[in-house]
Give the backbone structure.
Amino acid sequence: MNFDQRTVTCGQLRAADAGKTVILNGWVHRDRNHGALHFINLRDRYGITQVVVDDDASPELQSAASELKMEYCIAVTGTVRLRPDTMINKDMATGEVEVKAEKIEILSRCATLPFVIDGADTPNEDLRLKYRFLDLRSNGMQERIRLRHDFIKAIREYMYTKDFYEIETPTLIRSTPEGARDFLVPSRKYPGKFYALPQSPQLYKQLLMVSGFDKYFQIARCYRDEDARGDRQLEFTQFDVEMSFVKRDDILNLMEELFGYVFKKVMNYDLPAHFRRIDYYDAMNTYGCDKPDLRFECEIKDIKDIIEKSSFEAYKTILANKGFAKAVVAPKTAGFDFTRKYLDEIAAAAKTYGAAFVPFIKVGADNAISGSAAKFFTGLEAELCQYMGAKEGDVILMVAHESWKKCCASAGAIRSKLGKDLKLIRPGFEFCWIVDFPLFEYNEDEGHWEAAHHMFSMPQARFIPTLEENPGEVRGDLYDMVCNGYECASGSIRIHDIELQKRIFRICNFSDEEAQKKFGFLLDAFKFGPPPHGGIAPGVDRMVMIMAEQTSIKEVIPFPKNSFAVSPMDESPNDVDQKQLDELKICFKLDEEKK
């Protein structure tokens, strides 16, 4: 097809270009028809330029302009001219100029739109995903995809200066137990056998360390067959890093320097040289989770000692059963009332994580207290208010549970809700490191220990001699990078000693025989002089989501699945031809209710 090819983009023209003859290619973003006078906003990914068909234009040009509709793809030839001072649009980069059209060529027409691009009404998510190719034309999606590109580009720029190799690892691999369910790929050549899509490049990047490539990174595609949510998809991208001959601080320092560079380059935002480091147990006790949002305070406090002095028998019973009690202060906030309805919402948020109920105490003048739990603290008013740092107008909210984790999580849910509802969250980005995680956690359902992160993480040295005695006490050389309440990266120093690796497998209920069967290629490699090594894997989707100030990674992924793991656009997953199944020697049966 011959057409008038653009000489400039729709975001390029400025006042200095006045008088030039140019060709623009793009989509009709808006078309305002005033009889013989047409104003056309022409859009491409670089911006918008106003095109004008004057009332003295030729009949052919008038006819072409009158045929235009939104999202027609056109070519415009014309002359750049300055807008009158009263018509300058300061909200547009090209707002000082317009193009007087001399020729309009329709390159393709557009069917009736399911929604208006950048219209006043936001279409629902399924409609956006069904017509994602249109949704991606919107200014917001264009900007967020550009941000994603700039983020990855800046990462590569930095890593190349630090002498890292960018190395690809396989995407058809052996299925290994790594926590989530694998996506399996049947082999046509070997019927009954399967490849798996990688949940991460974990084992392969460790093998690269054995191979002598001491500084590796990859922008890696990963796959986990798990339920989708706001910050999780079946397929995702991580910035994968591994290094040899390093200790924890080397990796943490590298990430701090890298993200300092990336945020300055991409966002013109200055991060601190070093991020705060918080022990896992301190994070849980103080913020109720291991991914705290540090942009607001509302710290959680243990109230065991005060409860034991009180007459609060329900909580004292929980403590007597080796349980826990915690509280958080909701600060007095202008224009916000702690109504009974809102306190019920608080209780519902905590109940999700295990708290049976949320007693509350409202603080009045001179430490006077009222509320559902006030009567239990007679004589303790001043001590309670002083310990909690509660002032007049504040509300003290309490939770208790026999489980430490559930007690912390319930208090954390209250803290998180208060931060959002009371608008306590400061703008900007607050990073921290969570360190000293437990290496193991007990699986009550299956009755054995399992790795809290993964089985290749190094125990801290002081625990190695007595690993098997009390696995629940063992801390790992593990670290998570957290920003604004999201886990952005997880990493560890890895095990490089084959006998220690076998001990970890045994604690996690893998016999030597099963470990060899599942991970033999890694164990075999560890026989040949593996170096000490460690790494980390920041999530690209989640990190860009945070930078874009969004709450769903679907907003920064070009073609995501919906909350049901379905793509409304291409209708995947879909049925396949019987011929394909026959080639793979596959037959299957559906549950009765799915037939």
Remarks:
- The CA atoms of residues 242 and 535 lie 4 Å apart.
- The chain has a mean pLDDT of 95.
